[in-house]
Amino acid sequence: MNRANENQNPLALALQMWRERESKFPGWHALGVSGDGESQKVTFYIEPGADIGPLQTSVAEKFEPTAVEIMPIPRFRALRPAMAPGGSAGPPADAISTVGSPNGVPAAQTILQNAGPPFTLPGAVPATTLATPANILTVLEPGQGVTARNNRCSETTGTIGTFLKFVDQRPGDPILVLSACHVLARSQECNAGVEISADNQKIISGVVIPVEINRNGGNLVDAAVASLVVDNGIPPSGSVRVLNTYPLDFGMTSTKPIRPDAQARVDKIGHLGKTQGTVVGFCPRIDVDPDPAHVGRIEMVDQMLIESSSDHPFLGPTDSGALVVSGGRPAGLLVAIALNGNSSRSPLGVASPFEAVLAEVSRVLSRPVEMMPLGASTRVLAKSDTLQTAATLAAAAMP
Q: Which letter does DSSP use for residue 112 in this model?
């Protein structure tokens, strides 16, 4: 047994091998790590049925038997495959990039130009006008479905993870709906004239800003935001109410991100309601197919791996973008799933760390963002509200 690199830790050796995975170990699609120092252990996740002979040989040459394991798990994919009209897969896009508005203005500028009046917390609008059926037709909350569609691509449905605001929120700044990038912003083709609706009902936004997905790898997150125009009119005219509230048994106590340890319990609210899972660990490298039709396989870095409980699945269809919580604090954003028929704790989920999500969204917008305060409420304008308001003002200006 020749271990020429025995002075290197197992993770460093595995990362060297990862760079050659496509040519030498094509069935290897994820790398996990647990422990540290002398107790560090790496896990090679292999596609079932793949030829693992070359990987086994290399592992035997480089690693101590107690420092490594090889585990068969299917590749991680979108929580709901995107389908084109008629049920067939849509055509692949030429590129994944930051989305501009239909008039060619960069998205990071468009989000501010389309913003409405100042953001306010509960109390700024008289309570008697907040919940009357006449002026509240839609309530947005974390865990609800969110759909992106245009006339060129299939629609995709995911989950509202949470709502963000700027740390230094100013008059005219929007509220931001957070979900997965492969739900809200798959490609330039799919985002031209995109319409974002909540639970397949009211259109709430036409402006989406993604964290660009890099086909060459190194992706820290799969995340995007949709801009909501804040309505601070007295009385308010907006027909959508944003509530950053969670079920009492969800245990949310803080908006400060947390990085949970391996074996920590986590909760999620989405397609299957409130569910529980367990953190397996973090994957320094992992290949995922968030949207085979429009995105393709991409490499992601430092992603959380979560297993279901033995009696209930942690995640299911359309859960992409759902918020993962640990210890009452935001921990991650769900982005992919793998069905492991050999495990009682299937399916497995992949989540982008929430701290990285905030950092990447802040980078794209060139301003720091944070979660809306827990329990915060504000009125926003749906797309139809914006058009109606403009028409009303124009009519009033006529002689």
A: H
**How is residue 48 written in tokens?**
């079932």
Inter-residue contact 31 to 283 (CB < 8 Å):
yes
What is the secondary structure of 228-268 as a DSSP string? Answer: EEE---SS---SEEEE----GGG-----S---PPTT-EEEE
Q: How wide is the angle at C-alpha 353 spanned by C-alphas 267 and 287, nearest 5°?
A: 105
Q: pLDDT band for position 30 (50/70/90)?
A: very high
pTM, full prediction:
0.80
Q: Is the dihedral of CA 127, 147, 224, 287 positive or negative?
A: positive
CB-CB contact of 27 with 50 (8 Å): yes
Give CA separation, 219 vs 92, 212, 257, 299, in Å. Answer: 19, 9, 19, 6
Angle (deg, nearest 10), helices 53-62 and 10-18: 140
| Per-residue pLDDT tens digits for 116-133 | 333 333 332 332 333 333
Rounded Cα distance, 304 and 353, in Å: 7
From the list 249, 269, 263, the residue with the least C-alpha distance to 315 is 269
d(CA 366, CA 112): 12
Cα distances from 205 to residues 57, 114, 308, 374, 382, in angstroms, run 53, 10, 33, 23, 7
Cβ atoms of residues 158 and 80 within 8 Å: yes
In degrees, to the nearest 5, what angle opens at C-alpha 194 toward C-alphas 167 and 87? 130
pLDDT for 200 equals: 60
